[in-house]
């Protein structure tokens, strides 16, 4: 038996999957241009995150890894982790409330915001994650390009929705503070860790569809599956640590921004509640609110409150 990783080579085009990425990039660029040179302008770091997410997704789908994903399970696992975890996360980090405002004016789209509620987003993500790893659905995705494209779109869409609960611009439930966010991260990572353990310690290989590729690369099917599980478990550990740091950093940054807005409002004689400041900062509209306060855009604070 050769290396458990085998040999990776070649590239591929995936028009069914690259189309949505191209459309998303164009719409994002138009949205950024619409709010440019205003108080609602999208920060450069958010733009960098979104475009990096698109580059990662497109690069993954056209890379040698994508070719190997049809032949080896470990490659398929790595591909999905890059798309559904890192790629989707970068897309979400690129979004702001003003950027999404035109879409949210469409009634049925606005109603979809409820899907990003933590108690909805997590079960939906876990259900999608689990279903696509059932042998019937997983092997169908490997065998049929159309199904494979749907699988990737589902992983990215449900992954992004899962991240929206943590890092998206929509207001979070008042109860969803740091403690619950840490619990949310642990729940997400636990689902991945459990599946990784199943692949490492579950016995014989679950997916016969990879057998021709495993034979071609000289890889034992059990070793292929064990490698895929190990990749997932290591990935979950690293991402969990990074997310803990990100949550604490975001909480500190938002706390400072809220405090600055409250102090600015008090100095300007403008009424601003803590809840309004919290919602504005969470939606990425802190600069816009700051501009309105400076311009006296809210009702003055009553003398008894000053």
TrEMBL record:
GO CC, alphabetical: plasma membrane
Pfam families: Caa3_CtaG
Keyword field: Cell membrane, Membrane, Transmembrane, Transmembrane helix
InterPro entries found in the cross-reference section: Caa3_assmbl_CtaG-rel (IPR019108)
Name of the protein in its database record: Cytochrome c oxidase assembly protein
Top-level lineage group: Bacteria
Keyword Transport recorded: no
Membrane topology field: Multi-pass membrane protein
Membrane-spanning segments: 18-36, 48-69, 81-103, 115-137, 149-170, 182-207, 227-249
Subcellular location: Cell membrane
Species this chain originates from: Paraconexibacter sp. AEG42_29
């Amino acid at each position: 038996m050769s290396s458990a990783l085998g040999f990776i080579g070649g590239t591929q085009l995936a028009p069914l999957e690259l189309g949505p990425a191209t459309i998303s990039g164009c719409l994002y660029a138009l949205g950024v241009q619409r709010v440019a040179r205003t108080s609602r302008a999208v920060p450069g770091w958010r733009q960098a995150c979104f475009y990096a997410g698109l580059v990662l997704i497109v690069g993954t789908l056209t890379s040698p890894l994508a070719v190997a994903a049809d032949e080896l399970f470990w490659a398929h696992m790595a591909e999905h982790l890059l798309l559904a975890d890192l790629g989707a996360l970068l897309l979400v980090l690129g979004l702001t409330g003003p950027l999404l405002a035109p879409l949210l004016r469409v009634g049925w789209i606005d109603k979809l915001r409820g899907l990003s509620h933590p108690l909805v987003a997590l079960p939906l993500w876990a259900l999608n994650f689990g279903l696509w790893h059932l042998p019937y659905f997983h092997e169908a995705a490997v065998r049929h390009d159309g199904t494979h494209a749907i699988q990737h779109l589902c992983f990215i869409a449900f992954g992004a929705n899962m991240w929206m609960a943590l890092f998206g611009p929509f207001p979070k439930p008042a109860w969803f503070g740091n403690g619950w966010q840490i619990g949310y991260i642990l729940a997400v990572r636990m689902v991945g860790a459990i599946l990784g353990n199943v692949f490492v310690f579950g016995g014989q290989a679950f997916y016969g569809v990879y057998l021709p590729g495993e034979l071609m690369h000289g890889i034992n099917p059990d070793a292929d599956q064990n490698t895929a599980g190990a990749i997932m478990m290591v990935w979950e550990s690293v991402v969990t640590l990074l997310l803990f740091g990100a949550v604490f950093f975001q909480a500190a940054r938002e706390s400072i921004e809220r405090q600055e807005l409250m102090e600015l409002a008090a100095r300007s004689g403008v009424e601003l509640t803590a809840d309004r400041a919290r919602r504005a900062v969470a939606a990425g509209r802190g600069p816009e609110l700051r501009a309105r306060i400076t311009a006296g855009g809210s009702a003055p604070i009553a003398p008894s409150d000053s």
